[in-house]
């Protein structure tokens, strides 16, 4: 009954002609790859192929809703945001474990001695068998499977009542939606949701790139992600899960040992950590504790120690509980990779988007393998949470390559009677006060409502923001200005040679040489060449060349380089691809931004505000004036036509109560947005809309500025539509009705983009190759689909050949693909 360790073997693909069989096959395939990737850590296909299977399943389910099953991988995302979590009662309470405070081997010996005493074992009796496991550092969860299907997931809460977090937990790919094998009618699995350190670092890198808040540590981030009301946000957090115990079960013969039970959970397809071992007696526990202690830094996730559990369940029952803690288990920690030190001061740093980050200056300490003298305190809330004062003794932690953090204040080290919250403080204690002026440019510092981060309002007048934004602008993935390193940027700004990134394009050789001389004077260096009475200029010429070469970069990079908050590389690419011209991106009103793929409300507002800001307008105008010419497609993506449809734009206006359905209704009576902009209350009243929607619409139209904005949107819409292929043109396109399959990763387009382009040209994009396939577009690492295409004699194209076939392409004549 138990499936094989490596997951079910791949089944022969089901024919594309039978949607039910195909959907079932796709589901099994996707879950098999999920399992290989997230549970066994052995990826089995390229991401792009996985995406193609996923999309094919999505398409089938959209076309045949009756084929949708509750365990479909497509169900992992897409839950609606909640206003609150429902309460879940744990019929079997979620207990905690006692922690052994003695972190030495004597701690393990004491536990074994206690267990033996309680069990009445004497010296001559055999050693007790234990299960030794890792103690994961995340958030405890209880997963309830009914007839093998994930029915509910809950947090621990107070142990008796937790919160229903099912929609969030579904997004965790290592948690199976359906158990493998012969699952019992009821099986509650207990375990820990956690985040790996590498996933955490990547998440923070993404956050940083988008100018978003930086998370403090993997544990808090994992716990926060599970307790998100919007499952869409949880889905973006790289969470994982390990099972370590049971809750309620029915209709299952629980194996007689804890180790047997974990093996059974593993066979059901649940992730169970490999670093677990059945050991005998105190010596076995000590050896495990020591071994894991040595490997701790190398583990991909943080642990909080190890856990020992008496292996035989009958013995567990005999030992029972004291209060809410079992006598048969204990957590054994490690001497912390933590040190105490003193906070000498709290400085603030100003980032690219003006974020002001308090940083604790510490008396240097060696912790977790490195010297630490600065630690970020993130923001005001974090300082308040810690209650840290300048002068305090604090515990600093650093694990592996994780950024060091302040864990807590050692309050006992403060003089008695000191009140951190009020009143005068004795020397050397001081409270941190977030400055109300930027320490670099003296502009006002504001903290917007609902934001944890305080920001300098100086924008590009602030030297700190200028340095950071210039670094970002020149970075390899942005304008890629070769030779212009951080040191040069800092000096150019320090000595007032550039007020904004636009000034880079006005720099002359003398500017660089002057700045170099000033910097050398400041640093007290006399370069060799100067001592010899010569002036080196080659380096500066190289930078000037680098700057000149950066004038022509693709629009997407240019937009990314501008550094608007929330506009990372992918958002920049979306804007460039869909709108096709800088001028249109600059003019795009909010509703137009909202309808673009993957642009949510926060991002749309950020883009809109950025381009409306006069300072930014000036910089962009100057860049263009100084010869920067973003390379642009010049026309929108044909798929934009759908997004510009009246009902779509009306629904995106952000009018409360104007649902998509009502927008559709309203659009039927409209020829253009202009007509809507001019709508009179009488006209609206005739629209047969429910009273609440009507009132909301009238209120919206009467808001000052609304009608003018609608006219602007209407004008831009008309302009964009005029650049798109006329309706019917796509039908006459040479691609109309042709079936394409995309495989492998294409050099410049993402799968979605290629698909959108092909579909806009009237082609069909399918997930699998058959005799009916007209073209296969193959990129790097194309696998079985390419082979199949070759064996069936289907025409294979590369990306360039595909682009050339699209209507409007420079040579749309004949496909250049290899015929095989
Ligand atoms: S067993 C009855 N095993 O530690 C025993 N707990 O205080 C119930 N934890 O928040 C827990 N790793 O989420 C157990 N291998 C492990 C664990 C573990 C982490 C957490 C658990 C709970 C706390 C127990």
Descriptive account of the structure:
This protein is α+β, with helices and mostly antiparallel strands and 820 residues long. It is 39% helix and 16% strand. It has 33 helices and 24 strands. The strands form 6 sheets. Strands 14, 15, 16, 17, 18, 19 and 20 form a 7-stranded antiparallel sheet that branches. A 5-stranded mixed sheet has the order 2-13-10-3-9. Strand 11 (321-322) and strand 12 form a beta hairpin. Residues 1-7 and 810-820 have low confidence and may be disordered. The chain binds 2-(butylsulfanyl)adenosine. The site of 2-(butylsulfanyl)adenosine has 13 residues, from strand 3 and strand 8.
Give short descriptive properties of this protein:
binds 2-(butylsulfanyl)adenosine; 39% helix; five-stranded mixed β-sheet; 33 helices; 24 strands; seven-stranded antiparallel β-sheet; 820 residues; alpha+beta; single chain
- Helix coverage percent: 25-40%
**How much strand?**
15-25%
**Averaged pLDDT:** 89
Largest sheet: 7 strands, antiparallel
Distance between the termini: 46 Å
| Beta strand count | 24
Structural class: alpha+beta
Rg measurement, Å? 31 Å
Q: Which kinds of small molecule does this entry bind, naming each only once?
A: 2-(butylsulfanyl)adenosine
What is the general shape? globular
Would you identify the regions where 5 or more consecutive residues have pLDDT less than 50?
1-7, 810-820
Count of separate DSSP helical elements: 33
């Amino acid at each position: 009954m138990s499936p094989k360790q490596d997951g079910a073997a791949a089944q022969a693909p089901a024919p594309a002609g039978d949607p039910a069989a195909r959907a079932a096959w796709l589901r099994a395939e996707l879950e098999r790859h999920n399992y290989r990737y997230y549970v066994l850590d052995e990826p089995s296909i390229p991401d792009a192929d996985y995406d193609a299977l996923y999309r094919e399943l999505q398409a089938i389910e959209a076309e045949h809703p009756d084929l949708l099953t509750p365990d479909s991988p497509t169900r992992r995302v897409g839950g609606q945001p909640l206003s609150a979590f429902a309460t879940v009662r744990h019929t079997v309470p979620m207990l905690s474990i006692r922690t052994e405070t003695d972190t030495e081997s004597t701690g393990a010996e004491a536990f074994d001695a206690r267990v033996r005493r309680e069990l009445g074992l004497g010296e001559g009796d055999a050693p007790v068998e234990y299960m030794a496991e890792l103690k994961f550092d995340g958030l405890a969860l209880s997963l309830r499977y009914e007839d093998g299907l994930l029915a509910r997931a809950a947090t621990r809460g107070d142990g008796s009542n937790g919160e229903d977090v099912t929609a969030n937990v579904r997004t965790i790919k290592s948690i199976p939606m359906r158990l493998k094998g012969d699952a019992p009618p009821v099986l509650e699995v207990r375990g820990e949701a956690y985040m790996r350190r590498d996933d955490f670092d990547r998440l923070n890198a993404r956050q940083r790139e988008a100018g978003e808040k930086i998370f403090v540590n993997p544990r808090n981030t994992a716990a926060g992600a599970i307790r998100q009301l919007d499952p869409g946000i949880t889905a973006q957090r790289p969470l994982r899960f390990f099972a370590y115990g049971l809750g309620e079960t029915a209709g299952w013969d629980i194996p007689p040992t804890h180790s047997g039970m974990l093996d059974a959970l593993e066979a059901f397809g649940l992730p169970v950590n490999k670093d677990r071992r059945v050991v005998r007696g105190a010596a076995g526990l000590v050896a495990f504790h020591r071994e894991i202690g040595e490997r701790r830094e190398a583990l991909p996730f943080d642990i909080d120690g190890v856990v020992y559990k008496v292996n035989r369940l009958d013995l567990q029952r005999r030992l029972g509980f004291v209060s809410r803690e079992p006598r048969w288990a204990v957590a054994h920690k490690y001497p912390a990779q933590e040190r105490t030190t003193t906070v000498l001061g709290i400085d603030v740093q100003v980032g690219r988007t003006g974020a002001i980050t308090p940083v604790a200056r510490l008396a240097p300490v060696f912790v977790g393998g490195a010297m630490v003298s600065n630690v970020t305190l993130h923001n005001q809330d974090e300082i308040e949470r810690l209650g840290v004062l300048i002068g305090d003794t604090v515990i600093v932690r650093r694990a592996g390559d994780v950024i060091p953090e302040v864990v807590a204040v050692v309050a006992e080290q403060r003089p008695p009677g000191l009140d951190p919250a009020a009143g005068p403080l004795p020397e050397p204690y001081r409270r941190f006060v977030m400055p109300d002026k930027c320490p670099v440019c003296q502009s006002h510092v504001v903290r917007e409502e609902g934001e944890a981060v305080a920001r300098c309002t100086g924008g590009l007048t602030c030297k700190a923001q200028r340095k950071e934004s210039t670094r970002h602008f020149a970075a390899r993935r942005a304008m890629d200005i070769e030779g212009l390193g951080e040191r040069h940027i800092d000096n150019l700004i320090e000595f007032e040679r550039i007020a904004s990134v636009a000034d880079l394009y006005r720099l002359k050789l003398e500017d660089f040489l002057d700045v170099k001389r000033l910097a050398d004077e400041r640093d007290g260096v006399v370069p060799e060449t100067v001592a010899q009475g010569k002036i080196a200029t080659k380096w500066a010429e190289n930078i000037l060349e680098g700057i000149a070469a950066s004038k022509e970069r693709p629009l997407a990079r240019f937009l990314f380089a501008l550094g608007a908050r929330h506009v990372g590389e992918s958002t920049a690419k979306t804007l460039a691809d869909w709108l096709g011209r800088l001028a249109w991106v600059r003019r795009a009103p909010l509703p137009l931004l909202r309808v673009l793929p993957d642009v949510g409300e926060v991002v749309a507002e950020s883009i809109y505000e950025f381009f409306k800001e006069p300072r930014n307008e000036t910089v962009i105008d100057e860049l263009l004036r100084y010869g920067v010419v973003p390379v642009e497609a010049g026309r929108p993506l044909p798929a934009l036509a759908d997004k510009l449809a009246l009902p779509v734009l009306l629904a995106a206006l952000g009018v409360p109560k104007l649902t998509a359905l009502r927008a559709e209704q309203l659009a039927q009576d409209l020829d253009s947005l202009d007509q809507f902009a001019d709508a009179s209350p009488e006209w609206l009243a005739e629209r047969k809309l429910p009273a609440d929607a009507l009132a909301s619409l009238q209120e919206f139209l009467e808001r000052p500025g609304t009608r003018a904005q609608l006219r602007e949107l209407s004008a831009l819409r008309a302009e964009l539509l005029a650049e798109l292929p006329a309706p019917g043109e796509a039908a006459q396109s040479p691609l109309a009705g042709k079936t394409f399959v995309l495989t492998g990763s294409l050099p410049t387009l993402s799968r979605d983009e290629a698909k959108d382009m092909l579909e806009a040209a009237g082609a069909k994009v399918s997930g699998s190759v058959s005799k009916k396939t007209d073209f296969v577009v193959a990129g790097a690492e194309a696998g079985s689909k390419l082979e199949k295409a070759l064996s069936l004699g289907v025409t294979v194209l590369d990306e360039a050949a595909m682009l050339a076939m699209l209507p409007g392409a420079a040579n749309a004549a004949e496909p250049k693909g290899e015929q095989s």
